[in-house]
Amino acid sequence: VYLWQYRSSLSPLASDSTAAALRGHTEERELIWHIDSGPPPESKREESSSFATYHKHDMGTSDAICCTALSDKYLLVGRESGTVHKYSLPRIKLESQFVLRCRPQKLALNCDGSRVSIIEINGVLS
Q1: Buried/exposed code over 73-99 (b: 16+ C-beta within 10 A; e: otherwise)
Q2: Is 39 helix (H, G, I), strand (E, B) or coil?
Q3: Which residues lie across from 88 on neighbouring strands?
Q4: What is the pLDDT of residues 115-126, one digit of tens each?
Q5: E strands within the chain?
Q6: Strand partners for 67
Q7: R_g of the chain, CA atoms, integer Å
Q8: What long-range pairs does 37-40 form, CB within 8 A, spacing at least 24?
Q9: In what order do the strands lie in the sheet with 93-99?
């Protein structure tokens, strides 16, 4: 799983000259982990959790990721077995897992992350 957060101090109403002056004021944070091992602990995230320093493991997975959904509070990762992982943001901590009776094809969260819709592989909305 690769999660990338980009922030800019630039206001959308700023003029072009202000935008040119503030181009250097951006902040990028990224985190990468294998879905079966979970995100690294917060104490070790700076060491090997960026895309540039991530060491690709030769381990595959028998339960691949088939869909994702993201809100400002949660990251949902759906897997082929029907398991859905719910991570809280911005700390990226596994909050819960739940198992569906079907394989999810598409996940969607509402604006505040309080409801999720699931379209299964047969096209049925749950």
Answers
A1: ebbbbbbeebebbbbebeebeeeeeee
A2: coil
A3: 74, 93
A4: 999 999 888 997
A5: 2-8, 26-32, 65-70, 74-79, 83-88, 93-99, 104-109, 116-120
A6: 78
A7: 18
A8: 38/94, 39/1, 39/87, 39/92, 39/93, 39/94
A9: 65-70, 74-79, 83-88, 93-99
Tokens at residue 114, please? 């309080």
Angle, alpha carbons 80-75-38 (nearest 5°): 70
| Alpha carbons 44 and 65: distance in angstroms, whole number | 24
**Model pLDDT for residues 71-119, shown as the tens digit of each residue:** 989 999 999 999 999 999 888 889 999 999 999 999 999 988 899 999 9
To the question of pTM greater than 0.85 for the whole model, the response is no
State both tokens at 5: 């957060």
Positive or negative torsion for Cα 111, 40, 36, 94: negative
Tokens of 49: 């959790």
CB 117 within 8 A of CB 126: yes
Tell me the two tokens of residue 15: 């003029």
